[in-house]
Amino acid sequence: MRIWAIMAIGLSLVGCRAQGPRDGGPSAAAARGKVLYNIHCADCHGVKGDGGGPVAPLLWPKPRDLTSGIFKYRTTRGPVPSDTDILQTMKVGVPGTAMPGWDLLSMAEWKDLLAYVKSFAPRIALAAADRPVDIPTEVKSTPELIAKGRGLFAKRGCVACHGAAGNGDGPAAASLTDAWGDRVAPRDLTRGPLKWGNMPRDIYRTIIMGIPGTPMPAYEHSFTTDELWALTHFVKSLQAPLPEGYDPANPKKTVLDAAKIAGELPLDYHAPIWGNVQATPVFLKPLWHESGMTEWLTAKALHNGSEIAIYLRWTDNEMNVEGARVDGVAVQFPIEKVATPADLPYLGMGHAGRPVAIWAWHVGRTQELTARGMNAVRPKSPEMTRVMAKGTYDAGEWHVIMKREIAAAGRDDATIQLQGYCSFALWDGDLPKHAGPESFSEWMIYELAQ
Ligand code: HEC
Ligand code: HEC
Asked: What pLDDT score does 434 carry?
């Protein structure tokens, strides 16, 4: 129950005010939050919080207009979310959208961001949140209950939007719009994790409360409790398996461990050593949501003291090896040393003062690049390019291994530290709607074993 887990953290921090020198009341918190917001959030949500950042035109669903005061994700009765709800969205992000989770930041930093985010919408800043909605004791899932839920889903109108198989392609789906005037897709319920919690209680809450600002209705008075649990367990049963080792009730910071070996790092994914390395699932955030897109990749890493190899694997139904858009994958590293996660560059390839180094593999070409923002990406000359890569498409999956020396090659390059940060981006040639990658990951930690 991730909602409750974070609430417990919040409460325990109230109990012990061991937060160091972060005082100065709400306006000081908002001022600190503004600094973080302008680095990490403003490119999407806009400096004024109106959802109009420079990256917004590339995204769908659109970054929230935070001045509107409408929040989709809340556990409270009434339209005003609790602080815990907004903190929860910031911690885990919104699956299936570009909204990244900021799990790497500290609770104190989240609270500073919260103060600033709330200042955009006077309605939210001044209103008190109502109490959380009660969820009755869960009725255990059984095959009979799921069958009953399937019947209700078909007969009581869910299929009109979510489609007969829950894929989000019902007859009404294409014509739905939200409170901000954008098209909104009914979530494909076969993909996961869902946007606002993935546990049965979370799904139950969404069904009774609906989603503010969207056509998803509130069904509290339309069904009995038993019927609501039937629908909940049916919805849960639709979901394709999540990656091994991932617990949606308890999402943890993603850490990519690079085991140390002696000798050559293999570029071939068949090399037996890769079989001994733990795979880390990495969730992907789409720029432009498409049904059928890849929702996660798995990453493995090895190093030998002077070189590092990263093995990325993902499902792709069709291999795109020709034409303007070919499949590909990239990893980015901050160039400057990052003392604390708040100092990370903007996730979308940095800013002028916070550059990133990128290793990119596309079918037929391997490159290194330096970026100081989306519009300031420079490929390195072939002499300065050290990365080697091999991509293999096998039985519906890409296997790509990139390896490179750990030490920086000249200025404008990242040295791989014993512990540092990286993130990934994926290109799918099937999805030619926009330039740039199909999806990207949050910043995550890598660690080199000693
Ligand atoms: C890459 C773009 C991107 C970045 C960066 C980003 N967001 Fe978002 N954010 C989104 C999108 C897209 C949504 C809408 C998701 C949806 O509608 O389901 C969103 C939604 C939200 C919401 C609304 C939740 C609700 O209940 O409706 C909040 C709050 C939010 N973001 C805060 C932040 C904060 C704080 C940061 C920086 C720490 C941030 N975002 C960074 C794209 C982004
Ligand atoms: C009028 C169209 C419509 C109908 C009818 C409808 N939904 Fe939805 N539903 C949506 C939309 C649109 C969203 C996604 C909103 C968003 O992502 O911003 C959604 C989201 C959801 C989610 C949340 C998924 C997540 O990612 O958290 C669940 C669960 C859900 N619907 C279940 C149901 C069930 C069960 C029914 C029938 C009892 C139903 N819906 C009827 C439009 C509809």
From this structure: 67
